[in-house]
Amino acid sequence: MKLRLSPQTLRVLEVFLDDPRAWRYGYDISRVTGLKSGSLYPILMRLADRKLLDTDWETNEAGKPPRHLYRLTPDGLALARERFSKPASIRQRRTALSGAEG
Amino acid sequence: MSLLRRLAVRWLETVGRNAPPACREWASAMLHELDFIESDWAALLWAVGSTAAVSRHCLRAWVRGRKEEATMKDAAMKVAGVLLGVLIAVAVMGAGAFGVHGVLFRFFPALEHHGAPWPVWIFALLLEALLVVGTVKLWQKRRPMAIGILLAAVVFGTHFVVHLATHWNG
């Protein structure tokens, strides 16, 4: 099934592209992209379902609850890079970014 | 912990407890983020949004599961229908074969002693016609069963033609 890359999904992918090897927290992605949990998590779930996103649990530090971590898989990274290399996607990305700022 | 934050935590804990296993991990992930949200109102809104996200994900997974289940059930029913059709055709052919032996040759023993093949041929053609009629009748309402009968009819017909070809003396 083809993944629909909405402006919101592109925003999420862009966050992961900043440092592809880094694991990220849900709330941090939400803050950077400006997406609420009700919009962000369906995107993460869809990416994970399509094996484009790796998920893991943070090793528990004393007194802190473990947090869920996210990182693009090699397939996800390839898709993100491909999308951001296309001129149409750059336009879409700009629209998405201006939407996030405005 | 403020009342709002307690409410958000309880809310997401309840969602996590009642979510199907496939969604529980996600509900838990959203719950554990609550501790890192500074504002209480933001935490409550996070819980509300998370509930919507988990619900949608669970619903989608459930619908997908039901569709797969229905597809598998449908396929199993079709295979069972085809097998039943083959069984019915074999039963009809078996009953017909015994019928020829038991009835035709009992009442007309001369036919058996004479060794003429045509009574058997006529019987085979009648049987083949019966199977074809059965297939046509069942085609609209019970297609898998009709396919099973047709399959048996084709095998039987082929056998008959091969038999004729190899035993034909002119």
Structure commentary:
The complex is a heterodimer of chains A (102) and B (170). By secondary structure, chain A is mainly alpha-helical. Chain A has one domain (7-101): Winged helix-like DNA-binding domain superfamily/Winged helix DNA-binding domain (Arc Repressor Mutant, subunit A), CATH 1.10.10. Chain A contains five helices and three strands, in the order H-E-H-H-E-E-H-H. Chain A has helices spanning 7-18, 26-33, 37-49, 74-85, 87-101; strands at 24-25, 53-57, 68-72. Chain A has a three-stranded antiparallel beta sheet. Chain A is globular, with a radius of gyration of 14 Å. The model of chain A has no long low-confidence stretch (mean pLDDT 83). Chain B is mostly helical. Chain B folds into two domains: 3-65, no CATH class; 72-167. In chain B, helix 1 runs antiparallel to helix 2 (21-33), helix 3 (40-107) packs parallel to helix 6 and helix 5 (118-138) runs antiparallel to helix 6 (143-167). Chain B is rod-shaped and about 105 Å long. The N and C termini of chain B lie far apart (102 Å). At the A-B interface, helix 2 and helix 3 of A face helix 2 and helix 3 of B.
Notable traits:
heterodimer, A: mainly alpha, three-stranded antiparallel sheet, 12% strand, globular, B: 170 residues, mainly alpha, 88% helix
What percent of residues of chain A adopt helix (DSSP H or I)?
55-70%
Overall outline of chain B: rod-shaped
> N- to C-terminal separation of chain A?
32 Å
In round numbers, the mean pLDDT of chain B is 84
How large is the count of helical segments of chain A? 5
CATH homologous superfamily of chain A, by name? Winged helix-like DNA-binding domain superfamily/Winged helix DNA-binding domain
- Tell me the β content of chain A: 5-15%
> SSE string of chain B, helix = H, strand = E?
HHHHHH
End-to-end separation of chain B in angstroms reads 102 Å
Mean pLDDT across every amino acid position of chain A: 83
Domain module tally of chain B: 2
Largest interface: A-B, 18 and 22 residues
